[in-house]
Design brief:
Length: 103
């Protein structure tokens, strides 16, 4: 059981720290739970949270599920960006931060 928790924690840590890096493919999936989170903006007032869960036993995927939840949008922020050497002020949506606790 402790090995599963440690593997899940490592997987979540790696996935949470990287935005557009490819998923980790070298983990042993003998006894593993893989979880990833994704958000999609639904409009000005809501965000869709997708939780992808894969359970592996003896290297075989035995269960895969996606949970969906709707969260309130955090609003927008105004940021100054440099585009082609010129500074532009743009309104960008605020994003949620993910904190994971594994027991």
């Amino acid at each position: 059981m402790k090995k599963i928790v440690i593997l899940a924690l490592l997987t979540l840590s790696i996935l949470a720290c990287s935005k557009k890096e490819p998923p980790v493919s070298t983990l042993k999936k003998d006894k593993a739970i893989e979880i990833s989170y994704e958000t999609q903006r639904l409009g000005d007032t809501a965000v869709l949270l997708l939780t992808h869960q894969n359970v592996y036993v003896k290297g075989q995927l035995i269960r895969s599920q996606i949970k969906r939840d709707t969260l309130p949008a955090l609003g927008d922020t105004i940021q100054t960006l440099e585009v082609d050497g010129e500074e532009q002020t743009k309104r960008l949506p605020k994003e949620y931060e993910f904190f994971v606790t594994v027991k």
